[in-house]
């Protein structure tokens, strides 16, 4: 079992997970890990007014208030998160009506033709200095973002022993 993001979770929450693992599978090997946020180009964020594009279903159906993009914007000191609502196109306008608690970010609700068109238009219409892309895919490869942009991603970082490589090696 991998317990991830222990670097950003409350110790009592991690302990709850450990207790649950022990109840369900007392013999399980547990790997502790963190997922530090990285960006391709921090200079696109620092001191800038940024539009953050996040994975939409995580925010709507998953009810998360922020994602990796917002965390990265804060970590790399954006001066402001720009609210895209005044600039939304197509179905994104309806998404904000349907999910008013999304927050100050742009949800990528899917990657169909219409959804991509709406994302592209909204990204380019939004008055911001740059765009922070925190979607599961490299959005800048499939739409034309006419502003400086950078991609957010995670690295898996093992903490202590055993690490994931050791567990896999032992299994093989």
Blueprint of the fold:
Elements: E1 2-3, H1 11-24, E2 31-34, E3 37-39, E4 49-55, H2 56-60, H3 68-75, E5 80-81, H4 91-98, E6 106-108, H5 113-125, E7 130-134, E8 149-154, E9 157-158, H6 164-171
Parallel strand pairs: 1-2, 4-5, 4-6, 4-7, 7-8
Antiparallel strand pairs: 2-9, 3-8
What sequence of helices (H) and strands (E) makes up the elements? EHEEEHHEHEHEEEH
Indicate the structural class. Answer: alpha/beta
Q: Indicate the mean pLDDT.
A: 92
Oligomer: single chain
General form: elongated
Query: What percent of residues adopt helix (DSSP H or I)?
Result: 25-40%
SS strand fraction: 15-25%
Low-confidence stretches: none
The profile of the biggest β sheet is: 6 strands, mixed
Please work out how many helical segments DSSP would assign. Answer: 6
Please describe what this structure looks like.
The chain is of the alpha/beta class and about 170 residues long. The chain has six helices and nine strands; from the N terminus they run βαβββααβαβαβββα. The strands form two sheets. Strands 3, 4, 5, 6, 7 and 8 form a six-stranded mixed β-sheet that branches. It has a three-stranded mixed β-sheet with strand order 1-2-9. Helix 1 links the parallel strand 1 and strand 2.
Q: Quick gist of this model?
A:
By secondary structure, this protein is of the alpha/beta class.
Give the tags.
6 helices, 9 strands, three-stranded mixed β-sheet, elongated, alpha/beta, 20% strand, six-stranded mixed β-sheet, 172 residues
